[in-house]
């Protein structure tokens, strides 16, 4: 007999199979199923930590096998897609090698369609050097950085795989593919799975090698500069080799546009060619807040020292201030704050963690919801003048990032102790930080846009009500966090995923405005690739 049950164990019981089998037998008895612990075998389907009360609990969802062999079921449930050699005679150009682009390429290869992946940034090995120079030399390569390069923005991040987008596709398949290419098996069961930036580059490399082995192509250090359009249908793209300066046309049967949330030049290109292809959307902006990891662990685990049995603690906070959401995003326990600028004239910060999540600090973005109505008039007027009102939010985002640069130094970011931010005074000193380019003491409360600053201030006060100790001298705010999502959506048909203005162009992933995060972007890339497959069959 095979069935599912949930059991609750203490942190020090999680790895004791005898205790888990006994608890499973008790749960089965409640379902009128009699089984002795010795007759039970089980697989963990999902694990989550319940830290809402002082007694920390581990909740395990189990698939229980009573006098059955679980290995056969496991093999069936872990089946992967079958990828074929690119021999169909069809070619799809994919702009961007983030999760939408890579998973889109793999989906196309299920039908033998050749993916040609065009990536403005460099491969992961070369990209690591460019990322290092941001901290060591204050040099930002506008095409190879934390946002651009092989694997996209997710490669040098926490590798968070948690998503609520369970209606977009099969989350389990995405996780199994990551596991197949090298991610730890824990991602298949953890409620909030993550890979770790130290593991991601190897996984991305394995995906690339698989795609190439089946006939796919990669063009690194290659920028898409134009679309080749005939009778409202895209026929390919014009690209420029950034090393040689040479341009060429790449023709294809369709184009999967997976350029990410920071490719402002693609939005400008679409605004010139067909401004009605773009529409404004809600986004968010704010700061990174960084605490000592042990302080966050103490808050979340109610002062208990549970280092041996529990991971670095995560948190999630959210509130409403003046009819706008203020919330945490991309929380990185035991992580680092990193410079995520995609150009030399801006400062943008983000967070990441290694697989062990064992740094001295924990951080999270704390951001304010910004709706199209919230954009200051000067940016709306500029976008109107430029012929594409949808770009107003993008102009405002750029303004915040450049304002941050003006209040920093090089890539050293403007920062303020949280207590000083709330007291409206300059921080005479700043705490030690994981942010390697360095911090510059700055009155964030004075120069952040007022509707953002005001809501952040109240938001932190609200968070303190449920997270006692969150507001403290050791907490530092680092500006600015602006890339949680794009302010622009590339409008596409609901059923076909095709751009409403350009036939055979399929916007996907975070840059399209329809996804956010690694897994939802991967599923969106798959959905667009499946739509391309259907279109090419007809």
Summarize the structure.
With 538 residues, the chain is of the alpha+beta class.
Helix count, DSSP H or I runs of 4 or more residues: 14
CATH architecture of the largest domain: 3-Layer(bba) Sandwich
Overall SS class: alpha+beta
Number of strands: 22
CATH class of the largest domain: Alpha Beta
Unreliable stretches (pLDDT < 50, length at least 5) are: none
The CATH topology of the largest domain is FAD/NAD(P)-binding domain
List keywords for this structure.
538 residues; alpha+beta; Alpha-Beta Plaits; FAD/NAD(P)-binding domain; seven-stranded mixed β-sheet; five-stranded parallel β-sheet; 14 helices; 25% strand
Structure description:
The chain is built from 14 helices and 22 strands. It is α+β, with helices and mostly antiparallel strands. It has three domains: 2-77, 2-Layer Sandwich (Alpha-Beta Plaits), CATH 3.30.70; 91-277 and 490-537, FAD/NAD(P)-binding domain (3-Layer(bba) Sandwich), CATH 3.50.50.60; 282-481, no CATH class. The strands form six sheets. A seven-stranded mixed β-sheet has the order 13-14-17-12-20-18-19. Strand 4 (91-95), helix 3 (99-109) and strand 5 (114-118) form a beta-alpha-beta unit. The protein is globular, with a radius of gyration of 24 Å. The model has no long low-confidence stretch (mean pLDDT 93).
Reconstruct the topology from this structure.
Layout: E1 2-9, H1 17-30, E2 40-50, E3 57-66, H2 70-77, E4 91-95, H3 99-109, E5 114-118, H4 124-137, H5 171-180, H6 197-213, E6 217-219, E7 222-230, E8 233-241, E9 247-251, E10 254-257, H7 264-273, E11 278-280, E12 283-292, H8 293-300, E13 318-321, E14 324-332, E15 336-339, E16 349-352, E17 361-370, H9 377-385, H10 392-406, E18 413-417, H11 418-423, E19 439-441, H12 444-447, H13 450-466, E20 476-481, E21 488-490, E22 505-507, H14 518-537
Helix pairs in contact: 3-14, 9-10
